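Recap slide: Carboxypeptidase, sequence and predicted structure.
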Amino acid sequence: MAPSTFFHIIFSVFVFCLCSSFSDAAYPSNRVSISSPSHLPKLQAEKLIRELNLFPKSSINTAAGNASVSAAPKNIVEKQFSLNPLGDPGLSVQEFGHHAGYYRLPHTQAARMFYLFFESRKSKSEPVVIWLTGGPGCGSEVALFYENGPFHIADNMSLIWNDYGWDKVSNLLFVDQPTGTGFSYTTNEDDVRHDEKGVSNDLYDFLQAFFTEHPQYAKNDFYITGESYAGHYIPAFAARVDQGNKAKEGIRINLKGFAIGNGLTNPEIQYKAYTEYALNMRLIQQSDYDKINNLIPTCEQTIRTCESDGGDACLSSYATCNDIFNSIMQIAGDINYYDIRKKCEGNLCYDFSNMERFLNQKSVKDALGVGNIEFVSCSSTVYEAMLMDWMRNLEVGIPALLEDGIRVLIYAGEYDLICNWLGNSRWVHAMEWSGKKEFGAARTIPFTVDGAEAGQMKSHGPLTFLKVHDAGHMVPMDQPKASLQMLESWMQGKLPLTRTEGSTYPN
């Protein structure tokens, strides 16, 4: 492979969907070697991870020396914990149920999935919401501490309550997945996932075990949420839950809906939207737009070949299509592609380093029950393994879920370039389902918070699209109050529905 192609893949590894980046360029087979030597592309990828001020010591979590968890006889090993956050959340820490645990994934050789569960601050009868962080390969703790979890990390390494944590309106689950990210680990390279089938089966197995362990939550409404590369994870996971319910596999999961924030879901449509978004936001000029658009037909063709042939065709498509994004960035310069209102200062675009410092403290590890595992904030090996999944279209499974009455919320911060609102809006409008015409004809109306417009939205039946004002890629971080109201209103069926004249449909 030519050096320029290597560069394009490695650069794009960082600059698309979620807070990290890493990859060994093209990965030639369906196997990854946990012990493989570092090559030049991986060294470049590690440099890109450092742009977030993250320094994972390993490319994947193998949990060397953590025999105590590995030898545990139960499928789930869980403990209640307290990290003594500062401030007054309205109740004492002792009244909250905060749990951390490991689940032994049954269809693997040695994989253990780590999760954190926070009971609702309001009522245990609130919905159960699971959050999936993207990457692919970043631990869920990125969202927990910087977006919608119960706590934020102060500079002195203490925790402070998040006034807009999603546990205020739900029982909230964070999962480190796919295997090898965060505190999740394996000692067998065959357990590393390469596609959505493996990812969604693992998550479904985990849910079955979780609700067996916590039967009091099994009948609660259940929602799947996440952002970025979770635009791939979420539709596949939702379809797997729906399939399991219909086949009466194990415990019935009361799936009511799923929400994707600034996601990568339909690459063919979303990559085509890059140039128009960049032109509209004055990142490029008309002459740049015309020139870069010449790359789009080849990108479209390689995506179709990826869908039909898979394998190396998907790697080729990944490299080809990311030329579009790279060309825009060469012109735009040092903008933060997660939030184009901001610039990256030197090599630093965001600073999430406190997360690594906090989670690698012995006292925190002891509280969470993870033994002596090193926290792997973002796994380059996991990212690398999922590269052939990247250009797949995960929108194709959503129409069937809509027809089953499962609510779908697609939301996007307006200043994100990487998974921009325009591309997301276009695939939502292009999706073929029974309500397509009515959704397209629906009026766009304000989404208001405290009487002020916080976004623009449109709905028909179970489908809602929401563009969030004054937010980039990570909406719960940039607009915490609006994101909490969005979640609560959506789960309650109270996000205003826009109706076309004469149409009728249920909430």
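The chain is about 35% helix and 15% strand.
The two ends are 53 Å apart (CA to CA).
(End of recap.)
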